[in-house]
Specification:
Structural class: alpha+beta
Largest sheet: 7 strands, mixed
Number of domains: 2
CATH architecture of the largest domain: 2-Layer Sandwich
Length: 360
């Protein structure tokens, strides 16, 4: 079914305020989820709400806490999320970076004691709107099996990069695993099989049943006693396809997030303290040349990619094309919500006395 984006936004804002977030924080959290759904990234939209609510109830997320600036220099910031939602701390940190990068040309932030922060691209788009370029990284629960391993250790560790271009910015936003864990949840809710090489079991055999895959990931992410298996790195199941490069990408993010923040690495977020870490980076392209020329050159390069010869029936896309196309379509037609997610919305709405949006 489809629901109007603004109806989803109102529902989410009321849910979050009922859970003791401030009006300002509730509005930001709602915006991050609606933004994901509008762009077709349903794995990070309202599909996540029930998980967030459960973490709030168990005390993993503390709505009354607020991000704190631990220390800063002209080009760097350290932020403590104080066990609140990662979106709030990351947006706070990127706001600081934007102001600094406009003065220094470049600025870096690390966020500690954080939680899931939605789509990494949300924060790079903050930089883009300010005329800058940006990067956002996060570690996660242990979901990913390294090359030749049979048990999860790495996070799906999202990486986003945004750079000015037309008709929309270049916007890469993706996991350093084959897919994010949220995509498995979506497939499971919809009763759809997994395509390609996404998940393996404890014998490193590829799993295509979404329910079985979700059970494997849940055991890896939330249990100290793993049953084996997990998401594959970029490159798939076999070393011959260079899956060690995907593992290397994930390890880089582990170093820039959990290690640099002096927090938990992904492998340890399912034992004892639960804390994710984020790394944010903003820089001013204008330091390197005329912004209009840089944007035009980037646009020209991306258009050349789009115009390459393609196999019959296919089109060559560049990162961001699909999301911006869906953004325009879904703003008009509404966002898609699967039946199981809608049932969760109804349960949450009933418990908090919040009216659930009707079908658009």
């Amino acid at each position: 079914m489809k629901i109007a984006a603004e109806a989803e936004r109102r529902f989410l804002e009321q849910v979050f305020t009922s859970l003791h977030f401030t009006d300002k924080d509730a509005a930001l959290l709602a915006d991050t989820l609606v933004d994901a759904d509008l762009r077709g990234i349903s794995s990070h939209g309202i599909n996540r709400l029930a998980w967030y609510v459960s973490m709030i109830k168990e005390g993993t997320i503390i709505p009354e806490n607020h991000p704190e600036l631990v220390r800063e220099r002209p080009g760097s910031v350290l932020v403590d999320a104080n066990q609140n939602m990662g979106q709030l701390a990351a947006a706070f940190a990127m706001g600081k970076l934007i102001a600094k990068a406009k003065q220094t040309g470049v600025a870096i932030a690390v966020v500690r004691n954080s939680n899931h922060f939605g789509t990494a691209g949300y924060y790079t788009r903050m930089a883009l709107k300010a005329g800058l370029a940006g990067i956002a990284l996060t570690n996660t629960r242990p979901l990913v099996v390294p090359t030749n391993a049979t048990e999860a250790f790495l996070g799906s560790n999202a990486f986003a990069f945004g750079f000015p271009a037309k008709p929309h910015p270049f916007m890469f936003d993706g996991a350093t695993a084959a897919v994010s864990g949220g995509k498995i949840q979506v497939k499971d809710k919809r009763g759809e099989p997994l395509p390609g090489q996404w998940v393996v079991d404890g014998q490193r055999q590829v799993v295509t049943d979404a329910k079985q895959a979700e059970e494997i990931l849940a055991a890896a992410a939330f249990s100290e006693h793993q049953q084996g298996g997990g998401l594959l790195t970029l490159g798939g199941a076999d070393e011959v396809n260079a899956n060690y490069k995907g593992m290397g990408n994930s390890l880089v993010i582990e170093l820039l997030t959990g290690i640099l923040a002096q927090g938990s690495i992904s492998a340890d977020t399912n034992t004892g303290k639960h804390d994710f870490s984020q790394f944010l980076f903003a820089f001013d392209p204008a330091f390197f040349g005329d912004p209009a020329v840089l944007e035009a050159d980037a646009t020209a390069m991306l258009n050349r990619v789009r115009q390459l010869k393609a196999v019959p029936g296919k089109q060559v896309w560049v990162p961001g094309d699909r999301e911006y196309r869906l953004l325009e379509e879904n703003q008009r037609a509404g966002v898609e919500v699967d039946d199981k997610t809608y049932a969760q919305m109804e349960e949450i709405g009933a418990a908090l006395k919040v009216e659930v949006p009707k079908e658009a």
